[in-house]
Design goal:
Elements (H helix, E strand, L loop, with lengths): L1 H18 L13 H17 L13 H20 L15 H25 L2 E2 L3 H31 L1 H22 L7 H24 L2 H11 L4 E2 L1
Antiparallel strand pairs: 1-2
Length: 234
Amino acid sequence: MVTSIASTVVFVVFILLIHRGDYPARLSSPGKPIREYSETGILVACLLLVPFIKFNLFWYSGWLSAYLVFGILSPLIIELVVRKRSLSVIGFRMPMNKRVMRLVAGLVGLYIISKLIIPLATGAEFTFTWKRFISNSIIFAFLEEVIFRGQIQTRLESALGTVWSWVLSGLFFGFYHYYHDYLVTGKVLAIENLFQLVFITAIGMSLGVIFAKTRSLLPSYLIHAMNNLPLFTM
């Protein structure tokens, strides 16, 4: 619980630092609000249904297989087929804003300390496995950035503006973890779990600010991947 609180404070400070100054121009011209709201609603509805769709795919079982398929198909269908626009609009491009990239590099450094140096110094048990690394840090970190930042946040920005877009996408990011881990499963939410969800929400907002300031999924994905990196257990 203490770790979650401390980490949340770090991310709140990071949000305040990175939020300073102007935001770069959005990647697409503002669309019709009704279309942006409708497509956001469709994406959210699909995400809410995904935990109830269960089948096996590769080494995944249960709803993660459906989550994987949705994460892959949704940008291809909605962006390329329905909207007929380049994926660069949702962040498939190189980042801008050198000041923000320096802050991102500093945050990566903090992750290296917390994920590698501190566990080694405290004698934690090394638990790295390739499957967990590929799933947590490569596949799902990337797909969640595409879904929550690239697709949902981009649409919210067109309808509501930049700041509201990362605030709401971050809140939904935290809620969705609560939804599939607790509401769907019926698991009891303990106080330490609540602080963990607050931390996840803070991360979601931080990733949203990074995406809005750099107009690229690359830096937000890098932070997300580092956060999901499974290396040690105490």
